[in-house]
Amino acid sequence: MDIPSKYEPHQIENRWYDYWMEHNFFHSEPDNREPYTIVIPPPNVTGVLHMGHMLNNTIQDVLIRRARLMGKNACWVPGTDHASIATEAKVVAKLKEQGINKSDLSREEFLKHAWDWTHEYGGVILEQLKKLGCSCDWDRTSFTMDDERYASVIKVFVDLYNKGLIYRGYRMVNWDPEAQTTLSDEEVIYEEKQGLLYYLTYSIQNSDEKVTIATTRPETILGDTAICINPNDERFQHLKGKKAIVPLCDRVIPIIEDEYVDIEFGTGCLKVTPAHDINDKALGEKHNLETIDIFNPNATLNSFGLHYEGKDRFVVRKEISKELEEKGYLVKTEQHLNKVGTSERTKAVIEPRLSDQWFLKMEELTKPAIHAVLDSDEVKFFPKKFENTYRHWMENIRDWNISRQLWWGQQIPAYYFGDGQDDFVVAESKEDALLMAKEKSGNAKLTLSDLRQDEDALDTWFSSWLWPISVFNGILEPENEEIKYYYPTNDLVTGPDIIFFWVARMIIAGYEYRGERPFQNVYFTGLVRDKQRRKMSKSLGNSPDALKLIEEYGADGVRVGLLLSSAAGNDLMFDEDLCQQGKNFANKIWNGFRLLKGWEVADIPQPESSKLGIEWYRAKFNQTLTEIEDHFSKYRISDALMATYKLVWDDYSSWLLEIIKPAYQQPIDISTFNSVIDIFEQNLKLLHPFMPFLTEEVWQHIVERSPEQALIVSEWPKINKVDSSTILKDFEFTMEVISGVRTIRKEKNIPMKETLGLFILNEEKMDKKWDAVILKLTNLSEISYVNEGVDGALSFRVKANEYFVPMGGAIDIEAEKAKILEELNYTKGFLQSVVKKLSNERFVNNAPEKVIDIERKKQADAESKIETLEKSLAGLG
């Protein structure tokens, strides 16, 4: 097979991906092998590939490809999340462009548009993952709104309701006025924002007296139903039992007393707006206050907003403060730093709002999940530091608000048959609901048309928390073959930003519905940031186009570039130069292969240097493989790649290929060639999880292979238990000798084609067999062993050994002596300064031990260098 002169990734990537797909290498069915299972964190169906997806899915593909090579039954389940808020927003926006308002459509009509949109755009991100090389089992692609997943969610809701864990309650919730739906506490991001504190005066009824309160939201005075003072506050004793008048709307409200009021904050008087603050709501319930909601669902003011009705809350804030000032109610304003809750999805400022919602009781459900991570290590986090985050959330958990005022999502299976608060039933189907409603109401004449299903949909996370179970149909058929084989899954790769939304909840669901963990290990990736440490975003324009990167650097180059700097849990500072580094690595491997295949092979004796080089590299490979296995066991994927990178770039390309390379226009012996091809194939196996396309291309060029012999299904190398420490130590020593000779050549501009002699004072008793490698890589005419120094020679040391390279007339002896003398004097001066520092008792007694050790090493190095320089000087006569 002809080998192209240049590696062109765009010419081969589609071809090999199609080949893997054609031969079903990604597909898994239960068998007698050990399963290795990963479920993809389902990207939003609205999504396109970004840098975070690239990193996360590259890591998953590395793990799954390695497991496949290790002979495990690797199953990577892909899929997408229906993303209620994001998708509904996109569909509403598209309809608006067509002149259609959501409010003009029935639920069924809207859902048809949503499904059309999903079918048109929903598979984009999965197709993009293929470009990256992701070896998912595409036959198993799931969607959180497909029939199986939908039915699973409904079944779980009914089950939890029947267990008394789901309830309907009138509560203060987080309201997203842009998406016009509630959010759970975890979907609210708190940001510090600079605002104003407004000091307003309220008149006391039947009096000329006024009382001043401070608020950050002057528009909410229109919903005030009390003023609260601390009963222990001496300043306001005279106000007990009196009433105040709300500015502008002239509503008369009571002055109540409660120790909740902080005497030190603001003016010591608190305005109470039960409909718009969770703490005010608690005060309202305690003191039986009226509740006045002043906002419409979109955060414009309603009829309680007087002449501001229909205006946005932030517009009203500016206008009402101006009116309050003009009418003498606004005393002053102050700068005030305030924590403001914003929607994780739409970025809109959240409004606290009283609403009837569905909640899931969490306290009892969390107990097995807390034990699994924090006590038993059944579920392990990498890095471990995220256990603290998990602990804090789980131990302070609140009931989960699971209802959303949306149509795109699983519709809550609650059916109402009357107007009473309890006139509803919860069932998996409308037919079941009818039977239950007849029994509950005692009305046998009820029909299906008398039932009205709850309009709300369930929180998206209420479907994705079942993901590791539902993708194997473990909710609807808990004893099916697949769930018993593939569950629990092995590894989860995700970002720490969804540790509450998803990771914790999946663990909770796993113990509730399978009685065991959903996965064994959770690997938390960092966030991908730019070189300035900024989070990547469209608005900043600092997020590169993922597909363009693949086009420019090749999928393997991008994968290597991402992984080289992505230690678990630490943010990755992305730089395109990393992708260039990955591309250069691919080219290095390709060119090394072309060099190998370009040699003529002959049945001739094997040189001793080649034999030694191969023996050393096999030992080095074994040592590195041990390191790599250790890195993988600790989920140090970046370190595993770096160890592989150094092995192939430095040890294989820079050392082994040079050792075994035949002389110009001479053939290579068949024994060496076959050994190096075998070595190269082992390298490709280590590289394959990181660089699947390049490695498969090269693998198939080495020799013609059947599909069963493809690299993707070959065998991962095994660690050899033989002790190779001696050969590795000897070769390290040999490398230093070679480097010493090369340094002399470089410094004295002596070309490689000019032979030199080498004389060795062998104090270390080094094995002379390595001379063959030294001769090969330095072009020496001879190596001789001596008992004393050599006059007129340059020298260097490796440990206790002294090496002399006679120069003859090649150098100016006097100039060389002057140069050595200059360096000798400098080093003696440096040594004197170090010794002086170490003889200073104050320094030695106070400096950390580490610092003193560094200084002692400096002393030893300087003394060794002085000895070498003095011998070199003496050798020059």
Helix/strand layout:
Elements: H1 9-22, E1 35-39, H2 51-69, E2 73-77, E3 79-80, H3 84-97, H4 107-121, H5 124-132, E4 142-143, H6 147-162, E5 166-176, E6 181-183, E7 188-204, E8 210-215, E9 226-229, E10 243-245, E11 252-257, E12 269-272, H7 278-286, H8 313-326, E13 330-343, E14 351-360, H9 366-375, E15 380-382, H10 386-395, E16 400-401, E17 403-404, E18 414-416, E19 424-426, H11 430-441, E20 452-453, E21 457-458, H12 461-464, H13 467-470, H14 481-486, E22 489-494, H15 499-513, E23 519-524, E24 528-529, H16 546-563, E25 572-573, H17 576-598, E26 601-602, H18 608-633, H19 637-660, E27 668-669, H20 670-687, H21 692-702, H22 725-747, E28 756-761, H23 771-778, E29 780-785, E30 793-798, E31 801-806, H24 813-838, H25 841-846, H26 849-875
Parallel strand pairs: 1-2, 3-4, 9-11, 15-23, 22-23, 24-25, 26-27, 28-29
Antiparallel strand pairs: 5-6, 5-14, 7-8, 7-10, 7-13, 9-12, 10-11, 14-16, 17-21, 18-19, 18-20, 28-31, 30-31
Report on this model:
- With 877 residues, the protein is an alpha/beta fold.
- It folds into five domains: 31-165 and 365-402 and 458-525, Rossmann fold (3-Layer(aba) Sandwich); 181-352, Valyl/Leucyl/Isoleucyl-tRNA synthetase, editing domain (Isoleucyl-tRNA Synthetase, domain 2, Alpha-Beta Complex), CATH 3.90.740; 546-722, Isoleucyl-tRNA Synthetase, Domain 1 (Orthogonal Bundle); 723-811, hypothetical protein PF0899 fold, CATH 3.30.2320; 813-877, Helix Hairpins.
- The strands form ten sheets. Strands 7, 8, 9, 10, 11, 12 and 13 form a seven-stranded mixed sheet that branches. Strands 6-5-14-16 form a four-stranded antiparallel sheet.
